[in-house]
Amino acid sequence: MYDIAIIGAGPSGSHTAYLLAKEGHNVLLLDKQPDPDPETGSGLSGKNGMVCTGIVSKEAFKRFSLPEDTILKDIRSVKFISPSGETFRYEHHSAFAYILDRSAFNRSLLKQALKKGVTFLSACTVEGVNITKRWVELFCKNHSVSFKVRAKVSVIGSGINTSLLEMASLKGPQDFLMGAQIEASFIKADEVEIYLGNKVAPESFAWIVPLGNGRARIGLLTKRNAVTYLKNILNVPSIRERLQEVNPEIRYRLIPFGYAQKTYGLRILSVGDAAGQVKTTTGGGIYYGLIGAEIAAHTLCEALDKGDITPSTLKVYEKRWREILGSEINIGIRLRKIYATLGDRKIDHLIKIANSDGIAPLIKNKARFDWQKRFFQSLLSKPIIKRLLET
Fold first, then answer.
1. Fewer CB within 10 Å, N side or C side of the chain?
2. Global pTM?
């Protein structure tokens, strides 16, 4: 029997596994993706539905000592484009974030876990969960072979899997955005571009993220019809003339928006997307998911040392991560509600205000890439912004 069985070898799952194995625990890591190389993890997450800009803050790299060889490009500037084509460009004095090779990043975190002795099973689907007072039993299938795994405790880090969470008596996020994205040959992409407007991505935004070597990620978030809106963007002449591929593959997936309702139970926790540990402003989940993994590992180490893996002990996990991430998640929910009420004319006006009313200095003084509460509170308190939102 394992000490911990972790479902999902994305960043949150792999990092949880690494931290627990580092403390001497016997850890099993399961992932549904097929047959990565046991040394490099090549193939993990591959191209099966990954929708992510791959942008991670400089702060996250420093805090978690993330693998720098997975960085494709640094970010020093961002250009915002309004519905009418008005632009606001913010440039920082140094790099504040990095664009990653996401597959290489996932593989690197997996390899780090393997080096600490984590047992890894790929192409493994968890079809059932049975939790008793003595262990967690996972009913798994690898290709056509069915088998059972037992562990003292389990962690669900497999993204949005409602049925799995329900079997574990956990409750995932109740609201979602839909992300859609392509990665393709794309010219004249030197900096991150953010496109705003209800015809582009209603209540949200679209992006162009340069990868270097003439390639870019083009995608968006919306509440619905994300693939249709992305196809529309790709057919806009100013975008189409830069796109150097015909019919690039569109990937799409649900992205949680807001808290999971319950992230702990008897011998079980959820982390990352499954726990709603995602920035509600941008939909980014890597940094918050790693923070969740760190708290989960610390909580489980305490519980295993005490021999008490009951809900009354594990509930401190949810308390801890919400204390750190809760106010940031809440400000994002509030901002999206405000933004959803804006028509394109007001969005245009916001960009004009940004160019003329000292927004850039406010960003430099108040904004942090992952901790946006102070900046947005200051922004919303500006009289000119208040007037615009009230009219």
1. C
2. 0.94
With CA atoms as reference, report the closest residue to 101 among 211, 220, 11. Answer: 211
- Token pair, residue 131, equals 């939790």
305: tokens are: 């040392």
CA distance 180 to 51: 6
Find the helix or strand (DSSP H, E) in which 8 lies: none
Give the distance from CA 242 to its chain's centroid: 28
Q: CA distances (Å), 283 to each of 89, 221, 273, 274, 280, in order?
A: 21, 8, 10, 13, 5
- The SS3 assignment for 101 reads coil
58-116 confidence digits (pLDDT tens): 999 999 999 999 999 999 999 999 999 999 999 988 999 999 999 999 999 999 999 99
DSSP state, 48?
S
Residue whose pair of structure tokens reads 């991670």 in the numeric block: 56
The whole-angstrom separation of Cα 227 and Cα 250 is 7
Cα–Cα distances (Å) from 112 to 89, 118, 234, 254, 301, in that order, read 38, 9, 38, 28, 19
Q: Which residues contact 327 (CB under 8 A, 6 or more apart)?
A: 373
Cβ atoms < 10 Å from Cβ of 188: 11
The CA distance from 236 to 195, in Å, is: 12
Is the distance from CB of 126 to CB of 7 less than 8 angstroms?
A: yes
Provide the phi-psi class of 35: left if phi over 0, else alpha when psi is between -120 and 50, else beta: left
Whole-angstrom distance, CA of residue 279 vs CA of residue 328: 7
Q: How many residues are listed for the chain in this entry? A: 391
192 pairs with which residues across the strands?
78
Q: What's the rounded Cα separation, in Å, for the pair 188 and 167?
A: 48
* Residue 46: pLDDT band with limits 50, 70, 90: very low
Helices (H) and strands (E) in the chain, counts: 12, 20
Structure tokens at 227: 């693939």
How big is the chain by its Cα radius of gyration, in Å? 21
Kindly state the helix (H) or strand (E) to which residue 148 belongs, with its residue range.
strand 145-156
